[in-house]
Amino acid sequence: MNTQLLAPLTTTGVGGPAGIFIRADTEERITAALSAADAAGEDLLIVAGGSNLLIDDAGYAGTVLQIANRGVVIGKELSDGRIRVDIAAGHPWDDAVAQTLAAGLSGLEALSGIPGSAGATPVQNVGAYGSEVAHTFLEAKVYERATGRTTYFGNAGLGFGYRDSLLKRSTTNGSPQYVVLEVSFALQRSNISAPIRYQELAKSLDVEVGQGADASAVRTTVLGLRASKGMVLDAADRDTYSTGSFFTNPIVPAEVLGSLPEGTPNFPVDTPGKVKLSAAWLIDRAGFAKGYGLEGTDGEALAAGRASLSTKHTLAITNRGDATSADILAIARAVRAGVQTRFGIELHNEPLLIGCAL
To answer: What is the average pLDDT value for the chain, to the nearest integer?
Structure first.
């Protein structure tokens, strides 16, 4: 137990000190730390991979618990023929994806390269390239802080939505009611991927949307696509020092399309009468180019070049070396205001904001 700066624990590299810092690497240590903090009435922030988190420069005055348990267990065949895989909440997500593919299991390959820990994936219903956690999720083992007991939530029980779940909805300022200890997935014993649902990925693989492909090839292709957008962590590439996508893709009533330019990209969603728009397209068409905020660009005055949109992808706001949370938020506010002015659509942040607000 010790105090430490939180910046090194996040993929953005921003954040002040923790009042108390605890790193717990087993379920027993995690639950003991949670029980002690709750008994003492301490404010509690949970971190693991730190990839979807922006922490204020003042830090967090309460207890910060880093979930650091590890392990992937390839389990038994389920009644429907799929294979159960249990992953410790603190296990690096992309490592787990690679391990399942090495074991001859498919289903997670399109989620390759996503930074952070396995336990965070159901919270946000993490998704990319037409795939999302809900497609293969089996159950989560969680610690319920209100009762001090361990319980389980199945797929239906988590009420998954677009970048949303019961776990997220029951979290307040980084302090969850349910703390994920382990996640389980049901995967296919096959070298063929799940059906490709995303046009860009299908084109790169030279298959039709809806077809499968070699699962390892899907992983390799996804990693390449993500790297080209600065979405795979690389210590030498400042474009990767971000929370990932800073804004979610807006889901709006279908009639809103009538007020948008002809040809505005839109995608179907499960909710009748709604469509999903591309936040990246809106940002770009509102006049915010890749690299906005760097020296020599229109947005330089916002953060003196310390923070900017990625030079590869307009959805990521990046720390160029010594940015503060205020710098990151200055870029975010300018982008949000510009999209609102141009299109009348309000963008919402995807990362959790701790001690700060958009």
So the answer is: 96
Domain count, the chain: 3
Query: Does position 3 have pLDDT exceeding 70, yes or no?
Result: no
User: Which of these three, 206, 228, 250, is where a domain ends?
Assistant: 228
263 and 350 in a single domain? The answer is yes
Considering the candidates 51, 242, 245, 308, report the single residue annotated as catalytic: 245
Active site residue 163: yes
220 and 143 in a common domain: yes
82 is catalytic: no
Catalytic one of 42, 144, 300, 350: 350
The CA distance from 133 to 160, in Å, is 9
Task: Report pLDDT for 270.
Answer: 85
Nearest Cα residue to 351 out of 244, 250, 233: 244
State yes or no: is 350 an active-site residue. Answer: yes
pLDDT tier for residue 1 given thresholds of 50, 70 and 90: low
- Percent of the chain exceeding pLDDT 70 equals 99
pTM of the model: 0.92
According to the model, what pLDDT value does residue 335 have?
A: 99
- Catalytic-labelled residue, pool 82, 163, 219, 226: 163
Is 1 contained in some domain? Answer: no
Place of tokens 């009748």: 272
